[in-house]
Amino acid sequence: MHSTKPEKIIFKFLDGERKDDVASFQQAHISIGRAAGSDLLFRSGDYKIVSGHHAVVRHHPYGYELIDSHSTNGTF
C-alpha cells in the first residue's frame, strides 16, 4: 500500500529575479501564482507571464500532478 503523506517537493527558479532560489513544500496542495497568498509566489517584474492564480500542484498516492488554473500563458 502506498503512503498518502506528501513527500517533500522542491522548486528551483532557473531564471529571472529569483534565479537559483529554492522553495520546498511538504503539503498536499501547492498554489502557484502572483496573487497574494500563493504558496509558490512569483512577484511581478520578470514574472509577468505568470497569472495571479496560475497553477496548482496536487499530491496523489502515485506522485504529484501539475494542473493549470486557466492561466493566460499556459503551464509547461
Question: How do you describe this structure in short?
Answer:
The chain has strands at residues 9-12, 22-25, 29-33, 40-41, 55-60, 63-68. It has 76 residues and is an all-beta fold.
Describe the structure.
With 76 residues, the protein is mainly beta. Helix content is 0%, strand content 36%. The chain has a four-stranded mixed β-sheet, with no helix packed on it. A two-stranded antiparallel ribbon has the order 1-2. A hairpin with a 2-residue loop joins strand 5 and strand 6. The radius of gyration is 13 Å and the shape is globular.
Keywords:
76 residues, mainly beta, four-stranded mixed β-sheet, two-stranded antiparallel sheet, 6 strands, globular
Terminal Cα span: 31 Å
The number of distinct β-strands equals 6
Oligomer state equals single chain
| Unreliable runs | none
Q: What's the overall geometry?
A: globular
Helical element count?
0
> Could you describe the largest sheet, including whether it forms a barrel?
4 strands, mixed
* Class computed from helices, strands and strand pairing: mainly beta
Mean model confidence by pLDDT: 88
Order of helices and strands: EEEEEE
Q: Gyration radius, to the nearest Å?
A: 13 Å
Fraction in helix: under 10%
| Side-by-side strand order of the widest sheet | 4-3-5-6
In terms of DSSP E residues, the strand content is 35-45%
Write the layout of secondary structure elements.
Elements: E1 9-12, E2 22-25, E3 29-33, E4 40-41, E5 55-60, E6 63-68
Parallel strand pairs: 3-4
Antiparallel strand pairs: 1-2, 3-5, 5-6
